[in-house]
Amino acid sequence: MSASTQPKIAQDDEIEISLYAARKKIYPRAVTGLFAKWRWFFVWLTQAIFYGLPWLTWGQRQAVLFDLEARRFYIFGLVLYPQDFIYLTGILVVSALSLFLFTAIAGRLWCGYACPQTVYTEIYLWLEKLFEGDRSARMRLDQSPWNLNKIARKTGKQLAWIAVGLWTGFTFAGYFTPIRELGQAVLTWELGPWQTFWIFFYGFATYGNAGYMREQVCKYMCPYARFQSAMFDKDTMIVTYDAQRGEPRGPRKKSAEPQALGLGHCIDCTLCVQVCPTGIDIRNGLQYECIGCGACADVCDEVMEKMGYPKGLVKYSTQNGMEHGWSRAQMIRRVFRPRVLIYSSILLAIVAALGVSLWLRVPLKVDVIRDRGALARVVEMGRIENVYRIQLMNASEEPRELRIEVQGLPGIELASEPVVHLLPTEVRSVAVRVQVPPGQPSGTHPIEFHFRSTDGKIEVRERTTFLVPR
């Protein structure tokens, strides 16, 4: 078309350009096979831990409880306080490095098997299949007009989805409020505002993400899909399609010889696309939307078995392995490459440091503050007295009997009760009077408090100063 014959657009005409493509609903086909069994194994494992952990007891309390109101975190026999924030930081660093290490070795297997989004999507898809049938039945149901059958199936599915979402929200709140008390509050309609908010908020998030957003979360909301390329290399295990063996693709009869037809082993059945939870075609190569679930490998193996071809047209492999035709042993040897060794070394060092720190952690927190209301005063017999406010925190679930001693100046002694009794996990403030004989030089002098448990298991030293007036 010449320039003179092209249609002209008026200067005042407005053209609307959409920056977002309309979402096309994905109907994943159910699949069986080795990797499907592994996915369901992790579904059961992760949900048994998540739903069951709050109901476990440790002594007279919930085994795992993050009591924000009391500012105590209970993890089985370990009691952590806000002052132990360094351990939370260490756990987050270990989790991040573990993710980097695992991704460098095995790609997005976390996404495909154990990520909460994947796990709950599997559960919600199973419920959808239970009420609406398999892929073709769901597509027909959505395209059919509304009738009693469609209303009943859709309503049943929605009620099941809501029930799972609310139970998930209730369990989540049970990690922060004792779950048995929370259950009693639900039954008696005595939920507090924050418990109500988090139960419904987390329940709604589960319902919306797993029921409707599904692959949209993985493709657009999760940042992991975007920065995974920084952790991948050509020796990272990914789901791959063997193009040399599969191309050119095309349909044929089972009895036909692909070589005679000039075809590869791929029969272009598109089942690998139909089972994909994110709706991609693995035959187009590595894509950031791929979560590494292996569903396409399972269904392709079924097709290859029916056609009488070798399995593994779609499989877990590496780019180098596919390009050079490496065996599994050769690919495994490439696991121990510099990137993996660096990640492993840093991770082991941090885990060791964190473990040693927890092992050596003293379950007693002490903070000594001089009383600002009475810096120094002269008492009977000309002795000089300072008053200190001592904050004691018993970071264990055992009662403690502490003996307080002080040293640092000639003749220094406690003028108050030297023994303090602490209840389990008790936080207590104690006023302590310290005296020295007259004749001390004026100014501030360093002194040291010693806190010893009577059973000899704990000893803590805290330095402060003693003020002698002029």
UniProtKB/TrEMBL annotation:
Organism lineage string: Bacteria, Pseudomonadati, Pseudomonadota, Betaproteobacteria, Burkholderiales
Transmembrane segments: 38-58, 85-106, 159-176, 196-213, 340-360
Domain annotation 4Fe-4S ferredoxin-type: ranges: 257-285
Full protein name: Cytochrome c oxidase accessory protein CcoG
UniProt superkingdom: Bacteria
Species, as recorded: Tepidimonas alkaliphilus
The keyword Isomerase is assigned to this record: no
Pfam families, sorted: Fer4_18, Fer4_5, FixG_C
Record-linked PANTHER family: FERREDOXIN-TYPE PROTEIN NAPH
A cellular-component GO term for this protein: plasma membrane
SUPFAM superfamilies the record matches: 4Fe-4S ferredoxins
PROSITE patterns: 4FE4S_FER_1 (PS00198), 4FE4S_FER_2 (PS51379)
Keyword terms of this UniProt record: 4Fe-4S, Electron transport, Iron, Iron-sulfur, Membrane, Metal-binding, Transmembrane, Transmembrane helix, Transport
Record has Protein transport as a keyword: no
GO molecular-function terms, A-Z: 4 iron, 4 sulfur cluster binding; metal ion binding
